[in-house]
Amino acid sequence: MPRKLLILLLLWVSMGVVVSAQTTYTTVSGTVRDAQTGRKLSQVSVSSSEGHETTVTNADGYFMLKLPGRPAAIIVSSLGYNTQKVPISSEGRELKIRLTPGTITLNELIVNAANPYQIVEAARSKIPQNYSNDNELMRCFYRETTQKGRRYIYVAEAVTDMYKASYARNYYNDRVAIIKGRKLVSPRVADTLGAKMQGGPTLPVVFDVVKEPDFLFSQDELKYYTLKIDIPVSIDDRPQVVIIFEPLFAADHVLYSGKMYIDRQTLAFTRIEMSLDMRDRERATQVMLLHKPMGVRFRPHELTTTITYRYDGRVSRMHYLHSDIRFHCDWRKRLFSSSYHVEAEMVVTDLLSRDAHPISGKSSFSERDSFYDKVQFFNDPDFWGQYNIIAPSESLENAIDKLKKKR
Fold it and tell me: CB-based contacts of 281: which residues, under 8 Å, 6+ apart?
């Protein structure tokens, strides 16, 4: 049965933790736009051409990548665009990068005559070949925010280490540890009812649908879905078979709709986009809601998750995760309801080791831990030091400044 993503509605409490490290580094930054329209592009992958350091652009198309030395170039890639290798000059000026939409040739449009169920089954059978059999340690950046209406009332961020055991083993062996984290919370009394992601930084463990293929891809699970092949696209200059999946009929557990992107050459799952089926609001509420205060009515609207994997020429590994949750809360004694938007995103910023030891249970962050309770309040402009992060968007930066002033 698919696992559940839970939201915890509680009165906020506080606590704190953890450490840092210091080295010299070079920062490469800039903005990525669509070459044809000039539109700023978010969630674009930006990586060093010489190492494993990686980040993604924010909602404003802006990125900032910290590197141990000055690379000759960076690699910029995004769904549906041609990958670009951008040389780095010695001047250190901010880059203005424009990506051109990728084109699919007629030959690439020819998909195997097998039906989409057979393609998914073939991709599932190749998971042991397509994903790492090493025990790897990855450095990650994680952020979660809550908006009440259009106003940010909660921001929390962390650098984490993620241990990913061999894909020959299940996800229960994977662990996450917080290296450094911080949070800000609105001081308004009316904002004390907030939404917190249950599990938080462990989302890339919980939603590694490739490591736990029964989540969506098993034969037993696929019988609940209708699959059809969509127009192919390119990711990292590699043609992808795109398969749309939608619930076929009701089940005794939660279902999803969305798309899966499968590398046409390797048959590796490259990207999974999925949305919780909201037609049964009662079941959706059971999936999303763990606890709420007395007198509050919860109305779910959306739960969407995107997981991406990157191919390094040898294997594919998890790269980025983004989750959006939207809901309303009604107070029985109040006339109006409040809308909430909880957003979480994680990017793997570095591969630290291919022969890693597991993170101990004592040091690890549990799936049922509250991220809010594990990080401290912050006000240091140089808090992140040499760590790579997803640069905050302009609107988020403004919200952080406002929350700092109100403390």
Answer: 299, 300
Q: Which residues are CB-contacts of 270 (< 8 A; sequence separation ≥ 6)?
A: 235, 238, 240, 261, 262, 263, 308, 309, 311, 316
DSSP helix, strand, coil percent of the chain (3-state; round to 5): 15, 45, 40
The answer to whether the beta carbons of residues 302 and 285 sit under 8 Å apart is no
User: Is the separation of the CB atoms in 201 and 346 below 8 Å?
Assistant: yes
Instruction: Supply angle C-alpha 136, 369, 143, rounded to 5.
Output: 65
Q: What is the dihedral of CA 391, 392, 398, 401, to 10 degrees?
A: -80
Count of CB atoms within 10 A of residue 118's CB? 12
Cis ω for the linkage preceding 176 (within 30 of 0): no
pTM over 0.85: yes
Burial 305-321 (b: 16+ CB within 10 A, else e): bbbbbbbeeebbbbbbb
The whole-angstrom separation of Cα 60 and Cα 391 is: 9
186-210 confidence digits (pLDDT tens): 877 566 554 444 568 888 888 899 9
Cα dihedral: 395, 400, 403, 407 (round 10): -170
What residues contact 70, with CB distance under 8 A and at least 6 apart?
A: 26, 88, 90
CA distance 303 to 274: 8
pLDDT digits (tens, 9 = 90+) for 219-241: 888 999 999 999 999 999 999 99
Residue 194 structure tokens: 């907030």
330: tokens are 């009604």
The answer to whether 203 touches 323, Cβ cutoff 8 Å, is: yes
Three-class secondary structure of residue 295 per DSSP: coil
- Asked whether 87 and 72 are in contact (CB, 8 A), the reply is yes
Q: Of 241, 242, 244, 240, whose CA–CA distance to 228 is shortest?
A: 244
**Interatomic CA distance for residues 277 and 279, integer angstroms:** 6
Q: Are 258 and 273 in contact (CB under 8 A)?
A: yes
CA 384 to chain centre: 20
